[in-house]
Design a protein that fits this description.
Distance between the termini: 37 Å
CATH class of the largest domain: Alpha Beta
Strand content: 15-25%
Shape: globular
CATH architecture of the largest domain: 3-Layer(bba) Sandwich
Helix content: 25-40%
Largest sheet: 6 strands, mixed
Structural class: alpha/beta
Radius of gyration: 23 Å
Number of helices: 12
Number of domains: 2
C-alpha cells in the first residue's frame, strides 16, 4: 500500500514538489524537519517516518521514572511543534531501496506502505548497546523511552510495596536493592533520581529509607569523558547521599537471584537497569553504504559519500569532529540538535535554496541533574554546583524543549511542595520493554520483571 501521491512525478513538470523523507523524530530528525521547513517555506514536501507522533525530550526521562514529571510533559506532539507542511507517517521503516529511492514501512496496524523520495535523511537514532553478559537479555531492562520509564516507575513502587509486606529479611533486602550498570548520563541520573524516589516511598510505607540500597556499577569513572568538574561532583554527591559507586568494575552475570560483579561480590536484587551505552539503529547495517562502528560515514556536509541525495546525522551518523581531527562527534543531544539544523540548511541548498556549509560546533558545556537540590553544570566551562547548578540545569532544559515548558515548570513547582504520587498504574508490562530491540520475544523474568503471563 502506498500513500497518495507517492509515485507522482516531481514538480518541475506540473506535479508534486520535491519530497524529503526523514527517518526518525528524535533530536536530529525533529530539528532537520524544523530547519528545512523554515527555509523552504512550503516549496518542499517533508515526511517524517517514526513509530511515535512526538518528539521525546530524553534528558528529562529519569524524572518521569522518578515520579516528578508526567510523561506527556516531555513528549511534544510533532503536529504541535512543527509547521503544517511537515507530515508524520506513523510506523517502523523496514526497507530502504537506495537505488530506487524508495522506502517501505510497517504502520501500527500492520499495513505495509511504500514511498518514493528525492532526498532521504537517516536520523534513526540509537538502541541499547547489549554486551555478551550471561543473563542480560533475560533479567535486565534498559532506559530509552517512555514505556521503559513508566515501567520502571511502577516497578520501583511495586518492589517497595512488596518489601513492606515481606517477613523474610533476605527477600526484603533483595527487593530494596537496585543495581544500575553504566555511569554515563543515563545511568547516573536514573540512579540519582531513583534513590530519592525509593527513599520517599519507603517513608510512606513504614520502611527505613536507609534500607534502600542503590548500586552504580561502571567500567570507568562516573560520567567518564565529560567535563572533569561534572564527573567529580556527581561522584561526590552520589557517594555522600549513600549510593554505592563501583567504578572500574563490571557486571559478569545476571541470574534469578541477582548479579555477580567482577570483584566477586554477589548482589541479591530484583532490579537490574542496563545503561551501558547505545549503538546506531540496526537498520543502518542493512544498507550498502560505508559504516564505522555501526554509524553511517558522512562528509562534513552530512551527505553520504557516493549518494548525494542521502544525508545522515545524529546518533546514526559518523560525523567528522572538527575539534578532534580523525574522530567523530559524540552521540549526544547537543550534537544531534546542531547537526539536524545543518542538515535542514544543506538539504535546502541541494534543492536550490541557499548554500551548504560544513559541520562546525562550539562546546557550550554540559549539565547533569542529580535530584533534589543537587546538580552539576559547566556552562561555557564555568563550573557550578548545588543550587546555582540546579537553576542553570533546569533553565537549560526549559530553553531546549520545543514545547510544554509551562507544564514542565508547573510539575517542578508541585514536586517542591507536595509528596510524589505513588500509585502503581500497571500501564506497561515487562515484555513490552525488552532490552534487545532485535529480540522482542525474550521475556524478562525474576528480577522484578515478570513472565509475559504473570502480573505486572
Amino acid at each position: 500500500m502506498s500513500i497518495p501521491g507517492a509515485d507522482d512525478p516531481v514538480d518541475g513538470h506540473g506535479a508534486r514538489p520535491p519530497r524529503v523523507v526523514i527517518i526518525g523524530s528524535g533530536f536530529a530528525g525533529f530539528h532537520t524537519a524544523k530547519s528545512l521547513a523554515r527555509r523552504m517555506r512550503g516549496a518542499v514536501e517533508i515526511v517524517v517516518v517514526s513509530p511515535t507522533n512526538y518528539f521525546l525530550y530524553l534528558p528529562l526521562l529519569p524524572e518521569v521514572a522518578g515520579g516528578i514529571l508526567e510523561p506527556r510533559r516531555i513528549a511534544v506532539a510533532l503536529s504541535d511543534a512543527l509547521p503544517s507542511c511537515v507530515r508524520h507517517a506513523p510506523g517502523e521503516v523496514d526497507d530502504i531501496d537506495l537505488d530506487g529511492r524508495e522506502i517501505g514501512w510497517l504502520d501500527p496496524e500492520g499495513v505495509q506502505h511504500r514511498m518514493s523520495y528525492d532526498r532521504l535523511v537517516l536520523t534513526a537514532g540509537s538502541v541499547h548497546k547489549v554486551m555478551p553478559v550471561p543473563g542480560i537479555n533475560q533479567y535486565a531492562v534498559g532506559f530509552r523511552g517512555v514505556p521503559e520509564a513508566l515501567y520502571l516507575r511502577d516497578h520501583l513502587i511495586r518492589q517497595i510495596d512488596l518489601a513492606a509486606m515481606c517477613d523474610d529479611p533476605r527477600e526484603r533486602a533483595a527487593r530494596c536493592t537496585f543495581v544500575v550498570v553504566g555511569a554515563g548520563y543515563t545511568g547516573t541520573e536514573v540512579a540519582a533520581q531513583g534513590q530519592l524516589f525509593t527513599r520517599a516511598l519507603a517513608r510512606s510505607r513504614g520502611l527505613d529509607p536507609d534500607e534502600m540500597r542503590w548500586v552504580l556499577v561502571s567500567r570507568g569513572e562516573v560520567l567518564a569523558g565529560l567535563d572533569a568538574h561534572l564527573s567529580r561532583t556527581a561522584d561526590a554527591v552520589l557517594r555522600k547521599r549513600g549510593l554505592e559507586v563501583h567504578t572500574h568494575e563490571t557486571m559478569e552475570e545476571a541470574t534469578e537471584e541477582g548479579v555477580l560483579l567482577s570483584s566477586g561480590e554477589r548482589l541479591p536484587t530484583r532490579t537490574l537497569l542496563w545503561c551501558v551505552g547505545v549503538r546506531a539503529d540496526p537498520l543502518i547495517e542493512s544498507l550498502d553504504i560505508a559504516v564505522d562502528g555501526g554509524r553511517v560515514v558522512v562528509h562534513e556536509t552530512l551527505q553520504v559519500p557516493g549518494r548525494p541525495e542521502l544525508y545522515a546525522c545524529g546518533d546514526a551518523a559518523a560525523v567528522p569532529d572538527p575539534s578532534r581531527p580523525g574522530e567523530y562527534t559524540a552521540m549526544t543531544a547537543q550534537h544531534a540538535v546542531r547537526q539536524g539544523a545543518l542538515a535542514g540548511r544543506n538539504l535546502a541548498a541541494s534543492l536550490g535554496h541557499g548554500s551548504a556549509r560544513p559541520y562546525r560546533h562550539r562546546d557550550l558545556g554540559f549539565v547533569v541533574d542529580l535530584g533534589g537540590f543537587h546538580a552539576a553544570a559547566a556552562p561555557l566551562h564555568v563550573p557550578l554546583t548545588g543550587l546555582p547548578a540546579k537553576v542553570v540545569t533546569r533553565a537549560y532544559h526549559l530553553a531546549a524543549m520545543p514545547g510544554n515548558r509551562l507544564r514542565t515548570a508547573a510539575d517542578w513547582a508541585l514536586e517542591a511542595v507536595q509528596p510524589r504520587q505513588s500509585a502503581q498504574l500497571g500501564l506497561v508490562r515487562s515484555p513490552a520493554v525488552p532490552l534487545d530491540t532485535a529480540s522482542p520475544e525474550v521475556p524478562q523474568h525474576h528480577l522484578g520483571f515478570p513472565h509475559a503471563s504473570g502480573p505486572n
